[in-house]
Amino acid sequence: MEYALADLCKRGLPSLPAIFLVLLTGCAQIPLGAPAPSFENIEKARASRSAPVAVGQFQISPGVSADIDKGLNVRSNTVQSPIDGSFAQYLRQTVITDLQASGLYDAASPATLTGFLTDSSLDVPADTGRAALGARFVLIRAGKTVYEKELKTGATWESSFIGVTAIPAGINQYTTLYHKLVGMLLDDPDYRSANPK
Amino acid sequence: MNKLLGLLASGLLALNLTGCASVYVDTATKEIPVSAYKKPASPKPVQLVFEFQTKDVANATATKYLSEQVVDQIKGSGLFLEVKDAPVAGGALLNVVLNNVPLTDDAFGKGFVTGLTFGLAGSQVTDGYICTVKYLPTAQSPTISKTARHAIHTVIGAKEEPANGTKMENVEMAVRAMTRQIVSTALNDLSRDPGFQ
């Protein structure tokens, strides 16, 4: 059966045409999808032989513009975190999600992992898209810092001229960096040795 | 912003831009009833991780959109004693990835899906889907991997209908039907692997 955008509204998908109006006109606020566990990170966690940790505060790193925590401008649209409007909190939730799925999250652990967002960017032009994410992770056990390191990751991809294709693709690339960053932490030999099981 | 945003990354975008389109689920991959699965003598609990990808990149929005359906389908498969999102006794882990890939005539030449219909020049866009199921019976055991393929055809305007397509009322119904059929196919293959029993 053929249908038009107006029909979609009547069928209970009211936001579908709204998306395209928004993407065509710009100026939308687009939230990231909620973090879901990463199979790759579960495998990394299993191999890490590291101990469960509690997850403490995550915040913007001192000296870094607070703007990078609040939103990303993508072709006149604003990409935001669904968690307190903060990408630092989105990273915290991604860490918790992956650690919980791996059996390595324990709110009562004597070791607490905290994080400081140092970089967050997403650029979706009509040729090559670029995204970057960075954070300094700090693991404290019994009041003593046993691990502290800044980790950075990024991605480049072929970006479409057409916004309705390029924007979702850019958001997916950017969102994937959160799991990549957590994976880098779990892979880091210094983290593993600082937090043995 | 929208449950379907994450899904509409390639061919399905076309219908929204034109405002008039019909959606067909390819008939080559059919739903396999639960009764056809080869049930294990002693089903084990399993931790399930589901991820939707767009062109090999995780799509958090689409993952959340389809997660409940996939979880319910696997719970109802009878292949597992219990399906959880956290680690289970025994360490069994099931990873289900549904990857939306662009299809071209070249893909047809490579036999992406046997019987897949192409050839409606200028009026049809086809989205391919690859479902990969990885099962680890224990943390130490080798991975059992199964793959199934499917497609959704979008025909713009009053053009000829694809021969191997079942017309769906809307995009959401097409995506949900495709997901149910492709996951059932992969689960059936998994159930028949000697390593699964």
What does this structure look like?
Chain A folds into two domains: 1-30, no CATH class; 32-194, Rossmann fold (3-Layer(aba) Sandwich). Chain A is 40% helix and 30% strand. Chain A has helices spanning 5-10, 15-25, 39-48, 67-70, 87-102, 163-187, 189-194; strands at residues 29-31, 54-60, 72-74, 77-80, 111-123, 128-141, 144-158. In chain A, the strands form two sheets. Chain A has a four-stranded mixed beta sheet. A three-stranded mixed beta sheet of chain A has the order 1-4-3, with no helix packed on it. In chain A, strand 6 and strand 7 (144-158) form a beta hairpin. In chain A, helix 3 packs across helix 5 and helix 3 (39-48) runs parallel beside helix 6. Chain B is of the alpha+beta class. In chain B, strand 2 (44-54) and strand 3 form a beta hairpin. The N and C termini of chain B lie far apart (43 Å). The interface between A and B is large, with 44 and 45 residues.
Write a compact overview of the structure shown.
The complex is a heterodimer of chains A (197) and B (197). Chain A has 197 residues and is an alpha/beta fold.
Distance between the termini of chain B: 43 Å
Mean pLDDT of chain B: 84
List the secondary-structure elements of chain A in sequence, H or E. Answer: HHEHEHEEHEEEHH
* Cα-based radius of gyration of chain A, to the nearest Å: 19 Å
Beta-strand segment tally of chain A: 7
Structural classification of chain A: alpha/beta
Within CATH, the superfamily of the largest domain in chain A carries the name ABC-type transport auxiliary lipoprotein component
Determine the most extensive contact between two protein chains: A-B, 44 and 45 residues
Question: How many strands, what sense, and barrel or not for the largest sheet of chain A?
Answer: 4 strands, mixed
Beta strand % of chain A: 25-35%
Mean pLDDT of chain A: 87
The computed structural class of chain B is alpha+beta
**Number of domains in the coordinates of chain A?**
2
H/E topology pattern of chain B: HEEEHEEHEEEH
In angstroms, what separates the terminal alpha carbons of chain A?
A: 59 Å
Largest sheet of chain B at a glance? Answer: 8 strands, mixed
CATH class of the largest domain in chain A: Alpha Beta
Number of strands of chain B: 8
Low-confidence stretches of chain A: 1-25
